[in-house]
């Protein structure tokens, strides 16, 4: 069954860093996993449609690139740094991963272009994110598929902190009115205490006991952070596994539905 959340035809897809990188080896791409995701994207209706406007925005996470450097420098979504070398180490790693993702997408015929959050996104003193969308919106209108990534961003009073790909997904979905929002992670969905995929989540408390951190180095909250972020989104979203990217982009409803119901 397909699910839609209003807005136009825009789909926002996050490729989890744990999916597209080898979590055990710093700065290593998981070539097979990335190739499978890229093939699913390249063959999807979101790419192969008749509109001049791109109907897809891709965001990817940090995996063994950003998280390893962020952890080394003690930086997270809440702990900041004023060390410029930490900024370039974390941001540089994310740019290297982003350029691999963009290159592979382009090689598969997707009009992917890089968008780096450090240059435009910021948190204020209350950690509220300002996320200008003019560049992403105009790139889309011109037929490009913007590819953003978790990054470090300016944070008033803290230097820089990490912004996760999940926060970028929800920020863009809110501001651009995405019809469909999907997070591809290493698991087939959010799992309950028995290891079964939970069909739908509408509040945090009822699943909190089953939610843990990532198994890999992670500075942005693992599955618990992901679910909290998506529950606050004013539209439904899905978490699913690497095998379901094609199905999600084709309009199916794989994995776990997260719907906090907070509509405007
Ligand atoms: N209840 C749960 N259901 C599913 N996964 C869970 C659960 N609790 C903890 N996890 C862990 O959370 C991980 C997903 O979070 P993670 O932050 O690694 O996601 P990601 O978005 O794929 O990666 P990245 O943060 O690098 O982008 C899963 O691989 C799993 O190890
Ligand atoms: C660690 C960095 C810089 C990016 C974090 O993004 P995420 O993997 O989506 O949580």
Automatic annotation (TrEMBL):
Question: Which residues belong to any copy of the Aspartate/glutamate/uridylate kinase domain?
Answer: 10-235
Report the GO molecular function annotations.
ATP binding; isopentenyl phosphate kinase activity; kinase activity
Arranged from A to Z, the UniProt key words for this protein are: ATP-binding, Isoprene biosynthesis, Kinase, Nucleotide-binding, Transferase
Q: Where does substrate bind?
A: 62, 67, 165
- SUPFAM superfamilies, alphabetized: Carbamate kinase-like
Q: Does the keyword Cell inner membrane apply?
A: no
Gene Ontology cellular component list: cytosol
Which major enzyme category is it? transferase
Q: Which residues form a coiled coil?
A: none
Whether Aminoacyl-tRNA synthetase counts among this entry's keywords is no
Q: Which domain of life is it from?
A: Archaea
Q: What does the subunit comment say?
A: Homodimer.
Q: Which PANTHER family match?
A: GLUTAMATE 5-KINASE, ISOPENTENYL PHOSPHATE KINASE
Q: What does this protein do?
A: Catalyzes the phosphorylation of isopentenyl phosphate (IP) to isopentenyl diphosphate (IPP). Functions in an alternate mevalonate (MVA) pathway leading to IPP, a key precursor for the biosynthesis of isoprenoid compounds such as archaeal membrane lipids.
Q: What is this protein called?
A: Isopentenyl phosphate kinase
Q: What is the lineage of its organism?
A: Archaea, Methanobacteriati, Methanobacteriota, Stenosarchaea group, Halobacteria
């Amino acid at each position: 069954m397909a699910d839609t959340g209003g807005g136009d035809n825009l789909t926002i897809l996050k490729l989890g860093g744990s999916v597209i990188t080898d979590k055990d080896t710093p700065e290593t791409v998981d070539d097979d996993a990335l190739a499978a995701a890229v093939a699913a994207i390249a063959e999807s209706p979101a790419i192969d449609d008749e509109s001049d406007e791109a109907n897809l925005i891709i965001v990817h996470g940090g995996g063994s690139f950003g998280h390893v450097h962020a952890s080394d420098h003690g930086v997270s979504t809440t702990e900041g740094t004023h060390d410029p070398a930490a900024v370039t180490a974390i941001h540089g790693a994310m740019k290297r991963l982003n350029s691999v993702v963009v290159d592979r997408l382009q090689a598969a015929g997707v009009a992917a272009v890089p968008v780096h959050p450090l240059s435009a996104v910021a948190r204020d003193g209350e950690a509220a994110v300002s996320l200008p969308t003019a560049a992403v919106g105009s790139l889309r209108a011109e037929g490009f598929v913007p590819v953003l990534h978790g990054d470090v961003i300016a944070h008033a009073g803290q230097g820089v902190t990490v912004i996760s790909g999940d926060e970028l997904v929800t920020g863009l979905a809110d501001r651009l009115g995405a019809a469909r929002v999907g997070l591809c992670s290493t698991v087939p969905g959010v799992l309950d205490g028995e290891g079964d995929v939970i069909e739908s989540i509408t509040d945090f408390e009822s699943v909190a006991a089953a939610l843990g951190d990532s198994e890999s180095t992670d500075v942005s909250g693992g599955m618990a952070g992901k679910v909290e972020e998506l529950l606050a989104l004013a539209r439904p979203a899905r978490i699913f596994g690497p095998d379901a990217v094609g199905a999600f982009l084709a309009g199916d409803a794989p994995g776990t539905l997260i719907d906090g119901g907070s509509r405007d």
